[in-house]
Amino acid sequence: MITIAIADDHTLLRKALVNLINDFEDCQVVVEAGNGQELIDQLKGRKELPMVAILDVNMPQMDGYATANHLMQHYPTLSTLSLSMLTDEAHVLKMLHAGVKGYILKECDPEELHNAIIYASKGEYFINDLMTVQIGRGIAALNTPNSKHPLAYGDPIPQLTEREIEFLQWSASDFTYKEIADKMRLSPRTVDSYRDTLFEKLQIKSRVGLAIYAIKNKFVNI
């Protein structure tokens, strides 16, 4: 049984979500909170932690980003998922950097939510259309233990230059490409060139894909 904690300040939606998840044969909600601080307070008194925490992004007192960061630092065995109405890349990147294993919309199908919970319970990333991690042949490899790159078996490991690695690290942040160019003291066109080269080398087609690659392969510390 996959045990789950939920933090969402919208009471009606949270109650509906609890009922939905409890209808899954292999899932049970064991902690329910109205914000991140309430969730953390409840976890302190528990003898056994839940396996997955589902976090709203925008919450009073302690939002999803701060909550995910805290859980990653103090409860590293607890996997987190972000459930939100926000679809912009900046929020996805920020939550990934905070340690979440997936970012799903509140309007998603129950099956997608169920799959996300299963992946997170195993410590794996849940790859969906929202995250646009179109890694082609390498989607499965991204979740393979000790895998170093999202390429098909037998492909050569890509060699990255120091500047490509630096750009990869900045890609996992929520800075815009223009801001990354300023940080690296490069022109926006040069930064675009680094991005396109990494897309080709790593067989990744989105910035979120680059962020997950950087985080999983420990080019950035979260």
Task: Explain the overall architecture.
It is a single chain. Helix 7 crosses helix 9 (188-202). It is elongated, with a radius of gyration of 18 Å. It has helices at residues 11-23, 36-44, 64-74, 89-97, 110-121, 139-142, 162-171, 177-184, 188-202, 207-216; strands at residues 2-7, 27-33, 52-55, 79-84, 103-105. It has 222 residues and is α/β, with parallel strands linked by helices. It folds into 2 domains: 2-121, 3-Layer(aba) Sandwich (Rossmann fold), CATH 3.40.50.2300; 136-216, Arc Repressor Mutant, subunit A. Strands 2-1-3-4-5 form a 5-stranded parallel sheet, with helices on both faces. Strand 4, helix 4 and strand 5 form a beta-alpha-beta unit.
N/C terminus separation: 28 Å
Number of domains: 2
**Number of beta-strand segments:** 5
- Unreliable sequence segments: 132-142, 144-155
List the topology elements.
Elements (H helix, E strand, L loop, with lengths): L1 E6 L3 H13 L3 E7 L2 H9 L7 E4 L8 H11 L4 E6 L4 H9 L5 E3 L4 H12 L17 H4 L19 H10 L5 H8 L3 H15 L4 H10 L6
Parallel strand pairs: 1-2, 1-3, 3-4, 4-5
Keywords:
222 residues; Rossmann fold; Arc Repressor Mutant, subunit A; 2 domains; transcription regulation; phosphoprotein; Tscrpt_reg_LuxR_C; DNA-binding; DNA binding
Give a nutshell description of this structure.
The protein is of the alpha/beta class and 222 residues long.
